[in-house]
Amino acid sequence: MGRLSYLLAWFGGCVSIGTFTMGSSVVGSLNLIQATLAIAIGCFVIGIALVLNGAAGYKYGIPFMVQARSAFGFGGTRLPGLVRAVPAIVWYGFQSWIRPAR
């Protein structure tokens, strides 16, 4: 996967109806340009964190939980796993609430 394809894959995740809805519920007075700018800045900041978190996985080919095991030990990986699982479940529920499957 080239750099442009990688960029567009992550950009596609940021530009979704759920992202716009979440932002408009937090700050309802934003117009479309302001909301788009806020989303772009937020995606950029989150992208930096994702790049830093994924650097070892990209370089050595190891998943996040293997990285967490080296930092927290076998028993300590429950906390990072939970920190990743809870937002994923909440976001899945939010996306399901926005557009239920038919």
Automatic annotation (TrEMBL):
The keyword Acyltransferase does not apply. One of its GO terms (molecular function) is nucleobase transmembrane transporter activity. The keyword Transmembrane helix applies. It is found in: Membrane. Keywords: Membrane, Transmembrane, Transmembrane helix. The chain crosses the membrane at residues 7-26, 32-52. One of its GO terms (cellular component) is plasma membrane. Belongs to the purine-cytosine permease (2.A.39) family. This is Uncharacterized protein. It comes from marine sediment metagenome. The lineage of its organism: unclassified sequences, metagenomes, ecological metagenomes.
